[in-house]
Specification:
This protein has eight helices and 13 strands. By secondary structure, the chain is of the alpha/beta class. Strands 10-9-8-11-13-12 form a six-stranded mixed sheet. A five-stranded mixed barrel has the order 1-2-3-5-4. Strands 6-7 form a two-stranded antiparallel ribbon. Strand 2 and strand 3 form a beta hairpin. Helix 1 crosses helix 8.
């Protein structure tokens, strides 16, 4: 091993040649100004299906993006082979600014956020009225996530032939959430799909729901040319089986709308939600918070909302609904 003394000559230092050329490394990254615009449809084991103009291509994420995630619904810049031919691969070099982000955590104690979809403007919360039994706590959590993300909620109640919808609708009437009630017969003859489609036109709508509620069946009725696998509810556990394993964006026929089908969820953690943002979805109550103490939870003795409602500025049912939604962040879905 060669050793050097105190007075070494730099000319004696051996430099390993760069086999790939003599271009020095740089932190300056290309801007890819000629990149094409794309829309991420689905992701499968690191490969992304992207819509570029009127064709779908397969792409991978560029190393220069680092750990920055790409999710379904993202608008991206793509370079490389954009022909969409078999065995071709493009490269996503930039993720454009998102207009909205729907997030969730595994539970309320988990600080790790999972982005469900990007750039949606409506959240369709699908729940069955029976088989499996409805879970109002999960609906409340999805509503909180929608309000936090700035998405308009839509309540879709399925299987009304097995149980009436009136009691469930009464619970959410004070929130003013639009709704559609469907039955299995109506799904079979297309009537239910037509009513739901009216709410989806010119929107990007993400469908979220518990496994087995008929979410994917409804998506199949809305987009008949693309049939996804569906499953049955387990007679012993009363839970559905996960048949959708990845989110998928599908264009609605004859409209500018999109539906994004997502895997069934069994929990919807809200660790990431700032309760102060939920009040923004209650414009009739928000002005009443000006007199609240700092860091008010809006469910304590000094909350100014009690006097605001008592003075007739808002209905008591609206305040009750707000507090129910805020409280659900501190409870698990099964409580």
């Amino acid at each position: 091993m060669r050793r050097y003394g105190k007075h070494t000559d730099e000319d004696d230092v051996r430099v390993r040649p760069n086999r790939k050329g003599n271009r020095p490394r740089t932190n300056i990254r290309p801007k890819h100004e000629d990149a094409a615009e794309g829309f991420v449809l689905t992701i499968d084991r690191g490969r992304l299906t992207v819509l570029v103009e009127d064709r779908t291509i397969t792409a991978m994420k560029a190393r220069e993006l680092g750990r920055k995630g790409v999710v379904v619904g993202d608008r991206v810049a793509v370079v490389g082979d954009l022909s969409g031919d078999k065995d071709t691969l493009a490269r996503i070099v930039r993720v454009e600014k998102r207009s909205s982000v729907l997030r969730r955590t595994a539970d309320d104690d988990d600080p790790y956020e999972r982005v469900v979809v990007a750039n949606a403007d409506q959240l369709a919360i699908v729940t069955a009225l029976a088989d499996p039994e409805p879970r109002p706590r999960l609906i409340d959590r999805c509503l909180v996530a929608a309000f936090d993300a700035g998405l308009e909620p839509l309540l879709v109640l399925t299987k009304s032939d097995l149980a009436p919808a009136e009691e469930m609708l009464k619970t959410y009437e004070p929130l003013g959430v639009p709704f559609v009630v469907t039955s299995r017969d109506e799904l079979a003859d297309g009537e239910a799909a037509d009513r739901v489609r009216e709410r989806l036109t010119d929107r990007i709508t993400v469908f979220v729901g518990h496994s087995g509620v008929g979410k994917t069946t409804l998506v199949n009725a809305l987009v008949p040319d693309h049939q996804r696998a569906t499953g049955r509810v387990n007679a012993v556990t009363g839970r559905g089986r996960h048949t959708t394993t990845s989110a998928l964006a599908l264009p609605l026929p004859d409209t500018k709308g999109w539906v994004i089908d997502t895997p069934g969820v069994r929990s919807f953690g809200l660790h990431h939600v700032d309760p102060a943002r939920v009040i923004n979805a209650f414009p009739d109550l928000e002005p009443g918070t000006e007199g609240c103490p700092r860091a008010c939870s809006h469910d304590e003795p000094d909350c100014a909302l009690d006097q605001w409602v008592a003075d007739g500025h808002a209905e008591p049912a609206r305040l009750y609904s707000l507090r129910r939604l805020l409280a659900t962040r501190e409870r698990r879905e099964g409580d």
